[in-house]
Design a protein that fits this description.
Length: 102
């Protein structure tokens, strides 16, 4: 019985490690798209004294153009700006999910 408990705890720690890795990789791959989503949303946020942008005054017009412009103006790693706290969240969530359901 002690062996079974030890073996089960080993499985839980393996599941937790797998979950942490999966969460980190998932966030690493999805972060640039999250940055783009936020950039697109923010360019359409009307201010109280500024009219909404027209087609010609919009900075980001397509996904590929936005990727290129961000990399050109801010560098490649700008696609992961503000990613650290969200990575912690995704890792924690994945650890719990993998440990409970693994």
């Amino acid at each position: 019985e002690i062996f079974m408990k030890l073996k089960r705890s080993q499985f839980i720690s393996d599941d937790a490690l797998a979950g942490a890795f999966a969460g980190a990789v998932a966030r690493l791959l999805s972060a640039p798209f999250d940055v783009l989503k936020i950039r697109f949303q923010m360019q359409y946020t009307p201010s109280s004294h500024i009219s909404p942008p027209t087609g010609s005054s919009v900075k980001y017009k397509s996904i590929l153009q936005a990727f290129r412009l961000i990399i050109q103006e801010e560098g490649f790693f700008a696609l992961w700006k503000g990613n650290l706290s969200a990575t912690y969240l995704w890792i924690t969530y994945a650890i719990v999910q993998f440990s409970v359901y693994g």
